[in-house]
Design goal:
This protein has 106 residues and is an alpha+beta fold. 29% of the residues lie in helices and 14% in strands.
């Protein structure tokens, strides 16, 4: 079911057939804009595909994220479907739950 939903998502946004998201799990990606010295990197995470009791990104996406942070950028915008810093237990889904994500994300 997830794979079908992913294909519909990628088709809706006209993602090219040779895009990496077509062959790997999840729809996470990044975009870079601007010249050296004014480089903007926008990182879009997929917090649903790999979600488990241990992690919300999964090992594959965490490794990819580390590679993205190694790329040159003057400003990074990290887009995530979860709250990253939340101390309210009734706030709902948050990257601070489970504990592994709290330390890795921050």
């Amino acid at each position: 079911m997830k794979a079908v939903a992913k294909d519909y998502f990628l088709d809706f946004f006209d993602v090219p057939m040779d895009d990496a998201r077509r062959t790997r799990e999840g729809v996470y990606t990044s975009y870079s804009f601007g010249p050296h010295g004014k480089r903007l990197q926008i990182i879009l995470l997929d917090g649903r595909w790999f979600k488990s009791g241990e992690s919300y990104l999964g090992d594959e996406q965490w490794a990819w994220l580390a590679e993205e942070f190694a790329k040159p950028a003057d400003l990074r915008i990290l887009v995530n479907g979860y709250q990253v810093r939340c101390h309210c237990p009734r706030a709902g889904a948050s990257a601070t739950q489970p504990p592994h994500n709290r330390h890795t994300t921050l």
